[in-house]
Design goal:
Helices cover about 30% and strands about 20% of the residues. A hairpin with an 8-residue loop joins strand 13 and strand 14. The radius of gyration is 27 Å and the shape is globular.
């Protein structure tokens, strides 16, 4: 039977391997602190947090999210540990809510590994607090118990850790917040602010935002997670339409959808119960490209939230079924007669009814979204389109940079037939890491050599698309292939002549390319900071640069590793981008030296993998890399056009 705890109440734990599941109405940070018999935390190394998610006997989430699962093996904790404190906090520095009083009360549940609940606790009564001790797991008479605490701290994590006796409380709190920001590399970049919830249709007649300066575009990569104060918050969902924000002169354009209603009636032409006919490009925006971009993000958010509602409803039905069965069978006399069977049948019928209701609502929303995807996908321009789209057959090198580029597709288990394009704003604001390891592969039979080959193919596909969407002379690609193992995959780039230089091989080739690119970053940074951008050396290529690094870390010395870290950190700001093709396990020998490098890159995989999170509810989305149609010559044709445009531009 599940114990519903109130503040201060405790409950015995029947097992030592368990989970603490956290549910909140906004992304929060979850962590855990280990303390000794006196209740003191001896040092920062006794705290598990997004920057250090694993300690002996426990593991916490690696980023801020609305739902968390913290894993515990209490028998594996050090003997000195007498108490484990579960901590929750609102992340700072990313534009989110600053106190728990403005969001839904978070709840925590202690469960077995099979999901069976042991105890639950809703943390109510919070107001100005931004950090809270949710639970304590503590030793008592040879066993373990859980206590509901609910102690909040208006001073945030720093005040909480100070109360735990940590002298480095401020430094640790700052480090956790920094790790959360860096953890955005593992999530899909946030879209423009979302409109009111509930509408799956988009109206073409929505009022347009006020006129801004020509060419003004709000770069999504700079917005941080949703809830940017100056542009509205996707978490402030109400049933009333959001007002159109009036940007200040010279400010960013407001991209929210003022025409999306909470519960729109079907149009007159569509009978009740039927799907409203969607239209491609009926989101707000100054151009069709911008409207399609915003529409794709709206579909992405709609799917995230409708699946979250479905999962929440099913969880509620499961919890209610368990509660009613426990209540019905609490009387031993009811277990022996027909009364118990009748109660069980009634509870299961209610459970089935609730689940069916939730599934019907999900199916209704999925039907609308699938219909919308069917009209949006064929209308997407080259930068947003799949490789099998007919638009590539008439491809010509663009004269202007598009808003974004497609790097694959995203889907959820409940919607296997619906794939949302993964669009990333241009120019790139962080590099890419194409994972060639087995960690993301659902198929244990995939050969490691095959994974490395697939990863390099995906890298070439991404590099080719970036070349294809940039105007002539505005983008250059360099390749480092120390051992020459990627020659086969690189053949389309090499044979078409689109590479800035031949792929660098050997130690000298690696050193030469890295030295030239780090020098370029230094020169552009110095010129920009000194206000002398027109005094750059005449031979310096000011185009955006992409460095593709294959088979890292093989063939890289310490100097080369430091140069790569420098390019990953400083390069995007001045137009130098990094694309690593590597298996992180191969770099384990470097220890924590490379952790900042991995955190600064957006991880993509060569095979479908559920590692990306959305910025609203934190679902684990399955990422599918782009695939060329079998037997298609589209890539060769596109690269030939790019090479010819570059030659014409250089004449």
């Amino acid at each position: 039977m599940t114990a519903e705890l109130v503040r201060g109440q405790n409950h015995p734990l029947p097992q030592v391997r368990l989970e603490v599941r956290v549910s909140a109405g906004t992304p929060i940070v979850a962590g855990a602190a280990l303390s000794d018999e006196q209740g003191r935390v001896p040092g920062t190394e006794w705290v598990a947090h997004p920057g250090k998610p694993i300690l002996p006997g426990l593991e916490v989430s690696r980023q801020a999210a609305a739902d968390h699962r913290l894993a515990f093996d209490l028998d594996a904790l050090p003997e000195r540990v007498h108490r484990v404190t579960v901590l929750l906090a609102l992340p700072t520095g990313i534009g989110g809510p600053v106190r728990f009083g403005t969001v839904a009360a978070p709840s925590v549940a202690v469960t077995g590994l099979d999901g069976s609940q042991v105890a639950t606790y809703s943390i109510t009564g919070l107001d100005s607090e931004s950090a809270v001790i949710a639970l304590e797991l503590y030793r008592r008479q040879g066993g373990w118990k859980v206590r509901a605490v609910g102690q909040g701290y208006a001073g945030g994590l720093a005040a909480l850790f100070t109360d735990q006796g940590l002298p480095e409380a401020r430094q640790l709190a700052d480090g956790i917040n920094e790790a959360v920001v860096q953890g955005l590399a593992r999530s899909v970049a946030p879209p423009p602010p979302r409109p009111p919830k509930g509408d799956r249709t988009r109206q073409a007649t929505a009022p347009a935002p006020p006129q801004g300066p020509a060419g003004t575009v709000a770069p999504a990569q700079h917005q941080g997670p949703p809830r940017v104060p100056q542009q509205g918050s996707p978490y402030d969902a109400t049933d009333a339409p959001l007002p159109v924000a009036q940007p200040a002169l010279g400010g960013p354009v407001d991209y929210h959808h003022p025409g999306r209603q909470a519960t729109p009636p079907p149009p007159p032409s569509a009978p009740a119960g039927q799907v409203a006919q969607p239209v491609a490009g009926d989101a707000t925006g100054w151009s069709l490209e911008e409207r399609l971009y915003n529409q794709v993000w709206g579909m992405f958010e709609d799917l995230a939230r409708t699946v979250a509602a479905y999962r929440s409803a099913v969880d509620f039905a499961d919890s209610r079924l368990e509660h009613e069965l426990d209540k019905a069978l609490a009387d031993p006399r009811a277990r022996l007669g027909g009364q118990g069977d009748a109660a069980r049948d009634a509870a299961e019928a209610k459970h089935a009814h609730l689940v069916n209701q939730a599934r019907a609502a999900l199916d209704r929303d999925l039907t609308q979204l699938i219909a919308e995807a069917d009209v949006v996908e064929p209308a997407l321009p080259e930068a947003f389109a799949r490789w099998d789209s007919p638009v590539w057959q008439g491809y010509r090198v663009p004269r202007e940079l598009p808003m974004a580029v497609r790097l694959g597709d995203l889907q959820l288990p409940e919607s296997e037939s619906l794939r949302i394009p993964m669009l990333v704003r241009l120019p790139l604001q962080r590099g890419l890491w194409i994972d060639s390891g087995r960690s993301g592969s659902p198929d244990p039979l995939v050969d490691p050599d095959e994974l490395r080959r697939l990863a390099m193919d995906v890298a070439v596909t991404h590099a080719s698309r970036l070349l294809a969407v940039y105007p002539p002379g505005a983008f250059a690609v360099h390749v480092i292939d120390p051992a020459g193992s990627g020659a086969s995959a690189l053949a389309p780039l090499v044979n078409s002549g689109v590479l800035a230089t031949a792929p660098a091989v050997g130690a000298s080739g690696v050193a030469d390319v890295l030295t030239r690119l780090t020098r370029r970053v230094d020169l552009v940074q110095m010129a920009a900071r000194g206000g002398a951008s027109d005094s750059l050396p005449p031979g310096l290529d000011t185009a955006q640069q992409l460095l593709v690094v294959n088979d890292f870390p093989h063939g890289f010395d310490d100097r080369a590793v430091n140069q790569l870290r420098y390019l990953a950190d400083e390069g995007p700001e001045v137009g130098v981008h990094l694309m690593m093709v590597a298996d992180r396990e191969d770099a384990a020998a470097y220890g924590p030296l490379l952790d900042p490098l991995w955190r600064s890159l957006l991880r993509l995989t060569a095979v479908p993998d559920d590692h990306l999170a959305d910025p609203w509810v934190g679902h684990a989305w399955t990422y599918e890399p782009p695939r060329l149609p079998k037997g298609s010559q589209v890539l060769d044709r596109v690269l030939t056009e790019v090479a010819e445009a570059r030659r014409s531009w250089n004449r």
